[in-house]
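REVIEWER CHECKLIST
Item 1: Sequence provided? yes
Item 2: Single chain? yes
Item 3: Sequence as submitted:
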Amino acid sequence: MRAQRGVFSVALLAVACGCTPTPASTTGIAPAGAQAVNAGMDLRLQVGQTAPVDGAEFQVTFDAVEGDSRCPKGAQCVWEGSATVRLSVTSAGGKGTMTLQTSPRAGPVAATYQGWAIRVLALEPQPIEGREIAQSNYLITLRVERGSAGPPTH
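Item 4: Structure as written out by the authors:
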């Protein structure tokens, strides 16, 4: 009975604060924000969000989508297109900016920073013909892993 009250209290606290606890280990996606993200986990950020990378001594910020030529939903395109995304990486040594693509056919999808590879895995939402996507609606999925970004893969 006491254990049930404890679970109820935690659930009530989560509802009161507007939290929806989802352990990263069950989703495979690390939460963004002030909590450090473990290297090798998928990291999802909205434009303007920053997340420190645990053990990497830097943090990654999703600055903007500078261009989006991805094929809209329902359209027939010759190729999938690509979006150009700008990321900032900040460490004690300073701040760097990288511009990456969502398709390796358009340019690099990954870059190396201080011995860590930062790779674009996905960008949401998918464009819809005739509709513009507001910067605040973009959500990027990245992976940060120790090592070099290496050559682009096609």
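Item 5: Key structural point noted by reviewer: Residues 70 and 136 are 18 Å apart (CA to CA).
Item 6: Recommendation: ____
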